[in-house]
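Request: Not sure, any thoughts?
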Amino acid sequence: MGQSSSTDQLSPEQREAESIAASTGALPKLQKAFSVLSDPQTNSIPIESLKKCFSFTIENSGNEGNGVPKDFPVLLSYLSSCIVDLFFFSDGEVGWIEFLKGYSNCCGMTIGSASFNNLFRLFAMMSSEAGLHTKLQFVSNDDDNKVSGYLLSVELLMLLLMCWVMWWDCKKLNSGESLVGDSGLPDVTHLVWSAIESCAEEGGKLDLWECKALETYVQLPAAKITMWALKTVPNLTDCLSHFVHARLSYLANLEDKSTQPVPFVFDISPKENSISNLITCGRAWAISLTLRGTMSDEISKACFPSSVDDLSDMILYRSSVHGKGLTRFWSNVEGYNAPLLILIAAYEPKDGAERKWIIGALINQGLESKDSFYGTSGSLYAISPVFNVFSSSGKEKNIVYSHLHPTFKMYDPRPKPVGLAFGGSLGHERIFLEEDFAGVTIRHHAADRTYQHGSLFPGQGFLTHEASVLDVEVWGLGGKKAKETQTAYKRREELFTEQRRKVDLKTFGNWEDSPEKMMMDMITDPNAVRREDR
């Protein structure tokens, strides 16, 4: 397996390769995976065995349409071979050192731009093998290689779908369930439109309400795509590294070393499952690419088929089910002290048509009923038809405002607005959702110093927009523990409410001690002098 009984016998090259692999925490699993794949006689891995490790069977490759490019099945068929040829340098067999270096090239710690260069290089090699020659160019093949040239919008779509396939494969393997399950390609045109608006010179001039992303053959410079991805979907390159790691970890966990892994099956037909009224697989995936840790894992459950049963614990509120209004909203989110994703779907008439869009806000703590802004950090999202994320700027902390009508009404010459808001200031909120959830007001980012600048929907401009609300949803991203804590909180509140409603029947068990007799006596002779018996 390439190991030695004494570290003194290790070559400097092997010692360095093992040290780098150990820094990722994957060295023990790599040792086991190498023992499964390698030939005991040559102590190396046949190149075809390594390619089979990353391969899968493609189904429904002839089903095109609905936003899936016709060349994508051919492109995807070269994924496994190009990963091996690009990162695991070898002329026929892969030794222990080459195996470690190949893993580090894919999964080692590196800066974001270098990771995107690896993704570009992989896509360019796959395109070349498939006979689809892109306009990407690379200055050198060393570690500091730089990419230039451009991609067309349809090529960027295939790059995103390739990343989705690797991401889905990784999630399916890590679930520990059957390797054959529901797959399919989501609609990610909202990400393509985001890149077009950010990278193409004519991106801001295109009317996306009227045209389709695949029909806009605009040139997207590779350098600008990298900058867009680092800002909008910074975890996109994790799809490649997690895919390689998951496949090798699967081999390492095989109990029977003689068993050859069965090629995995992936259905690449369009299959845009709507998890809820506002969240689809593509939208949930885009949001997950902006997050890390528990929050990313939780929102990922929305597009991973094996976790659909857990969605009931994640969707805390849905106006189409629970009813519109701040009171109904509050009864479902109160007591959930964990990150919340709040989604708003709205529409407004424009040129004789209704333009619909979806926006969202992520706050890293639960909600409170206060007449002022509060919060530590959060992000605003433009979700559909264009995806963008606007994180906290750090200049102000007006993260969220959630104010209900006070229980005891008193005269207030300057009443605070009742509703839900994000960013801006009182009276000039960047997003303000009315108390009855009938309308939402969107203001230009110039009024907001809390979140980064940008349009929440296409054509927002400088004017204030008042739109009608279609639906509101709240997703809890704190996991099962946060949901259990909220359930316990609601039970305590119900118990306290029930106790306050109870009447002491012993005290009011007879007419002489009843409050009704007291009231009757006062009405009969209100001026009578009475002595209270104690």
About this structure: Residues 479-501 form the longest helix (23 residues). Confidence is low (pLDDT under 50) at residues 1-6. The chain is about 35% helix and 20% strand. Residues 236 and 289 are 6 Å apart (CA to CA).
